[in-house]
Each structure stands twice: as structure tokens, then as C-alpha cells.
Specification:
- The chain has 1 helix and 6 strands; from the N terminus they run E-H-E-E-E-E-E.
- By secondary structure, the chain is mainly beta.
- It has a single domain, classed as Alpha-Beta Plaits.
- A hairpin with a 7-residue loop joins strand 2 and strand 3.
- The longest helix is centred in the N-terminal third of the chain and has 5 residues.
- The chain is globular, with a radius of gyration of 15 Å.
- The protein starts with a strand and ends in a 12-residue tail after the last strand.
């Protein structure tokens, strides 16, 4: 199975300063950050070194809908690209 990591989308509002995803993350991989575009909201940011891709922070998982995690469905799990492998270009 390919390693995955959490990715926070533009739908994130930081849950008004009390982010649900951070509560469910067992690895402390999510941090609340200032949103440069909105004074009223903050956004979550993923610490790549801490995220294991376990999916505890998301609303939907591989087994269907989960009631845990982000209530706004603003976090996705995406594949982690290995920086040691360069993608070849077709000419």
C-alpha cells in the first residue's frame, strides 16, 4: 500500500478555533495556523513528518463514512511522492 498523508483543502475554517480533526489525530500532525486571507478564521496545517496517513482526521475513509474527524470534509488523504524517484518525461 502506498503511503498517504493528509491534505487540508480550502474548505477548512479551523472549526472556529476548536478543530475537531486535531482532537482525533493520534500523532499530533495537525496545527492551527493563521489564515492570511481571512481575519476571522484559522486553517489547519499538516506537519508532514508527523502525519502517518492513518485517516483519523477525515470524515470519509476506505470503509465508507466515518462520524469522526472533520465535519466539513475539508481533509483528504493523498499519496506521498517519494522525492528519491524522479518522474520520467516522455518526449
Amino acid at each position: 500500500m502506498q503511503k498517504r498523508t493528509a491534505f487540508v483543502t480550502e474548505r477548512c475554517s479551523g472549526c472556529g478555533g476548536a478543530p475537531v480533526c486535531r482532537i482525533f489525530c493520534p500523532h499530533g500532525a495537525l496545527e492551527l495556523q493563521e489564515d492570511r486571507e481571512s481575519f476571522f478564521f484559522k486553517k489547519m496545517e499538516v506537519k508532514p513528518d508527523a502525519c502517518t496517513g492513518c485517516g483519523s482526521c477525515i470524515t470519509r475513509g476506505p470503509r465508507g463514512t466515518q462520524i469522526l474527524g472533520c465535519p466539513w470534509n475539508a481533509i483528504r488523504l493523498i499519496p506521498v511522492r517519494d522525492p528519491r524517484i524522479q518522474e520520467s518525461t516522455i518526449e
